[in-house]
Amino acid sequence: MAVLERSSRSSKPAAPADMDEPRFTMKEVAQATRGNVNTIFSWFQRGHFQLNSGDRRAETGCGHGISLRTALEVAIAVELYKQCQLHPAIGVKVARKFTWSADKDRRPGELFEGSDFTVLAVYPEIEDAKVIRVNNKTPLTDAFIGPMGSRQEAATLIWLNFIDKKMRVALLQRGKGSAEG
Fold it and tell me: Is the pLDDT at 14 greater than 80, yes or no?
């Protein structure tokens, strides 16, 4: 079983060996988001959230096993719903720009190293997003250059460092990474 550890180089949690290991229950994930647990369950039932390839489908006597990758997608979607009433299915779609996409400085589902912030710039009008590195030298205009270089009139910025930390800490406290139940 993969564990979430602290990196010796920084104070941020290190990436687990496998973000796709199904080790959390649906209830643990829903509670960790600090959203309404019943609402999040209903979003899963309605198909707004899909299980990823690493998740375990429910079997008799055992609920879904949810991976950290899926848990982060749900948390981002919940935050987007709270902040700007973005439909949860669209929230998960744009969250995958963080959990499944990488660049030269960041692996999928991981934050940028060091003191820089990892921000998801969301463009509700086109149902798309991009991950940007933010520090004291980042021009604000970077957030308004959408995917493929398109200029956007509006962007919702989600600070992923806070969501990542909130979820990892809450999930470690809740079940110590167990997907049973």
Answer: no
Residue 16 to residue 4: CA distance in whole angstroms: 5
- Identify the pLDDT of residue 12: 42
What pLDDT is stored for residue 60 in this prediction? 65
Asked if residues 5 and 17 have their Cβ atoms less than 8 Å apart, the reply is no
Q: How many CA atoms lie within 13 A of 141 on its CB side?
A: 3
pTM equals 0.83
Q: By C-alpha distance, which of 15, 67, 88, 73 is closest to 179?
A: 67
